[in-house]
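Posting this for the archive.
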Amino acid sequence: MEKILIRDFSLTYSDGQESLKQVNLAVPENAITVLFGPAGGGKSSLLRSINRLNELADVAEQKGQILLNGQDIYAPGVNPIDIRRKVGMVFSRPVVLPLSIYDNVIYGNSVAGQKNRKLLDQQVETALRQAVLWEEVHDRLNDPAAMLSGGQQQRLCLARVLALEPEVIMLDEPTSALDPVSTSKIESLLQELKRTYTIILAPHNTQQAARMADFAAFFLQGELIEYGTGDIMFTRPKDQRTQDYISGRFG
């Protein structure tokens, strides 16, 4: 069953660049859907459209629909903040706040008005355990988050998203700045989290895309070229452009 349904979605920025061109895509729940392709293909624009972060950019024109649980997220009366709580986002480089580890995790809940300390404590522990970070930081929650390693900071950013109890987690090249050991931890973590969440991943290379994809979508110059299960897309793609990109002959 699809968690997100994208219908004829197009996006043009104020500089005239048509970043997305009539994209049609169904994102299944409780699976990892990978968006891959060369830089400038529209992957990041689509991610930002799914949780309405694109509204913070210079968008000139937008057409089509994005449905979450059957509801158009751009329908009149839909609060973008509510969408961003349901659809969390992790970016390529860890962005920790100049606060403690504890306050980083519960930042969103605090802003939303949550003041029950016992509940906040539980949310912090639960989110850090889900991010496989609790055992590493449970005895130093009041330390500055900036003291953590890069891999730990990225998992902390994921914990901050998890603390909001989203339905969908999106990640835009989340391991591009990490070493192989930290990358492996993030990949293993995502495989566990898909049991509970719907995950959309834009990886930073084709190898990671092939490792992680339950489903995969190949984007080129704003168009969705091909979509299918991960095992087929990375072994027997139908479109020649997809074949060329995966084999390294693209361009």
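The mean pLDDT is 92. Residues 95 and 157 are 7 Å apart (CA to CA).
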